[in-house]
Amino acid sequence: MSRDRNKPENAGETLACNRRKFVIGAGAVTTLAATGFPFPTAAAETIKFGEFEILPLSDGHLMLPARLFAPNAEESARAAAFAAAGHKGDQIRRPLNVTLIRNGDEQILVDVGSGPRFMATAGKLIDDVDANGIDREAITTVVFTHAHPDHIWGTTDDFDELVFPNARYLISEEEYNYWMADDILSKLPEDRQGFATGAQRNIDAVKDKLETFKPGADVVTGVTTLETGGHTPGHISLEISQGNESFIVLGDALTHHIVSFQHPDWISGNDHEPERAIKTRQKLLDKMANEKTRLIGYHLPDPGVGRVERDGTAYKYVSES
């Protein structure tokens, strides 16, 4: 299988660095140099799911401005949702739950965390991987749900070396084309342009190992990519299937355990295509409630594993923890 060194292979229906400067303005998430803050690690609880093992790992957490959540909601309704979630103040703590899927020799990592160049409270995935005795060189596949900093900037370490050097790297064709477009900076507000240069830097780092795909393609047998665009144009989730049961790795399709479930029609300030993201949330929630699907969410309360239940005309998140 040949591969153009300057462009990733398009795998169709099957899936078989240069350092750049970046800046994030004051209106976006504050970028901090990684520090030596201690990060409490613990053995991940392995979830047995048919032939698969699912391990929720942690990259730490983010502190995000509360104003990014539901900017179109009525103040009283937003305040009630935040109170139900236990939020106080103008900053909201959001976990970073990275998923490892195992089946035999296949070890599939879904996203790679924030790395050393984003927030001091994040970039802890390497610590958790090592604490759980996971061999970084044994990771066979990395799937990017999308190319936001907290999902892709952990591709390389402090020395710009690949953290998972033997993996193949997969990203949806739409997501790749969006971030790698020559005019991407013109499509973003100034305070988000650093997201683009960071995405390009990390995608460039794996260009010789990168494959693109269209949603619906299998990563391996039993793990299928789902189109869940809106948060970013090419955002995908993964569905692990065993018999009549399934387990969905959401990425950022649903990001908040109260707002995303009880108010899926509220706009999020983090979504690139807000109206498309609303339709994605509604469709996904309906599917998971009907099929009683288990899920793991990147930003849901640690470790992010639970289910969806109907709650009147809306939904609610039910944690398994």
UniProtKB/TrEMBL annotation:
Q: Which domain of life is it from?
A: Bacteria
Entry keyword Aminoacyl-tRNA synthetase: no
Domain named Metallo-beta-lactamase is located at 95-299
Enumerate the Pfam families for this protein: Lactamase_B
Query: Coiled-coil annotation: which residues?
Result: none
Q: Which InterPro entries match?
A: MBL_superfamily_lactonases, Metallo-B-lactamas, RibonucZ/Hydroxyglut_hydro, TAT_signal
Record keywords? Hydrolase, Metal-binding, Zinc
Its family remark reads:
Belongs to the metallo-beta-lactamase superfamily.
| PANTHER family assigned to the protein according to its UniProt record, in alphabetical order | QUORUM-QUENCHING LACTONASE YTNP-RELATED (PTHR42978:SF6), QUORUM-QUENCHING LACTONASE YTNP-RELATED-RELATED (PTHR42978)
Put simply, this protein is called: Glyoxylase, beta-lactamase superfamily II
The root-end lineage is:
Bacteria, Pseudomonadati, Pseudomonadota, Alphaproteobacteria, Hyphomicrobiales
